[in-house]
Write a structure and sequence with these properties.
InterPro entries: HEPN_Cthe2314. This is Cthe-2314-like HEPN domain-containing protein. It is a single chain. By secondary structure, the chain is mainly α. The chain has nine helices and no strands. It has one domain. The longest helix is centred in the middle third of the chain and has 35 residues.
Length: 236
């Protein structure tokens, strides 16, 4: 959808983890279709998982494109202070902020959608622990159930690898959803330091780097999950 608005959003940098995630999700959908043809799926359980899998693929595209568009608008921002921005820069910055926020919110939205799939496929019964649960709650259930520990271990390794950027993105997501817009909080703090001082623009490149790490974490988590699950389905 965003490609229709902004043209070709393909990144010049090759991202193999993104391709791996799409490939694993596509193979899962194909395997589920084959299973439905074979067993007719009278309970519609397979159909439900297939729809969720396709939904994850669509959500990943939305995250990928949000990051790409944020990168696109960041290139138009030259000034280091809010007060020094031209009119065009202010427009570019507003659009950058929109898609950057959309990106870090979608990082956790995808993980939580994946948690729902994991809970269903592996019968982890997470709702008995917490009625409204996150991906990270589901991840802990692998240890408690003592089943498919290899998958749980691989997913925990990925989580730990990206612990730093994930914590930063989570704080921003929580502030955005529950408290105040993150960029407004930063502006308020700077005004408190000196009412007559210029507002320094946040480190856009660092923020985009953290979002890219969040995207990579999501990709690795998806590909690891569905490569493992696809092998189980093929084996059955």
């Amino acid at each position: 959808m965003l490609s229709n608005l902004f043209g070709d959003l393909s990144n010049e940098d090759h991202n193999p983890v993104l391709e791996d995630a799409y490939r694993a999700l596509k193979n899962s959908a194909l395997l589920l279709q084959e299973e439905m043809k074979r067993y007719k799926d009278p309970s519609h359980d397979l159909r439900k998982i297939e729809i969720w899998t396709r939904g994850l693929s669509s959500a990943l595209t939305e995250l990928e494109q949000s990051y790409a568009v944020a990168m696109l608008f960041r290139k138009s921002i030259i000034a280091g202070f809010m007060d020094d921005m031209t009119g065009n820069e202010q427009v570019a910055y507003a659009r950058y902020v929109y898609f950057y926020k959309n990106g870090f919110i979608r990082v956790f939205a995808i993980l939580d959608k994946l948690g729902t799939v994991l809970n269903e496929v592996y019968n982890l019964q997470t709702s008995k622990v917490k009625s409204q649960y996150s991906y990270f709650t589901v991840l802990r259930q692998f240890s408690y159930h003592q089943q498919h520990n290899s998958l749980g271990s691989m997913l925990r390794t990925i989580k730990d690898e990206y612990r730093g950027p994930l914590q930063i993105l989570r704080k921003r997501r929580n502030a955005e959803i529950h408290y105040m817009n993150t960029e407004m909080q930063d502006d308020l703090w700077q005004r408190h330091q000196g009412l007559n001082d210029k507002i320094v623009l946040e480190d856009l490149d660092l923020h985009l780097k953290e979002l890219k790490q969040g995207l990579d974490m999501v990709c690795k988590t998806l590909s690891t999950t569905f490569l493992y699950t696809n092998k189980l389905w093929i084996g059955n």
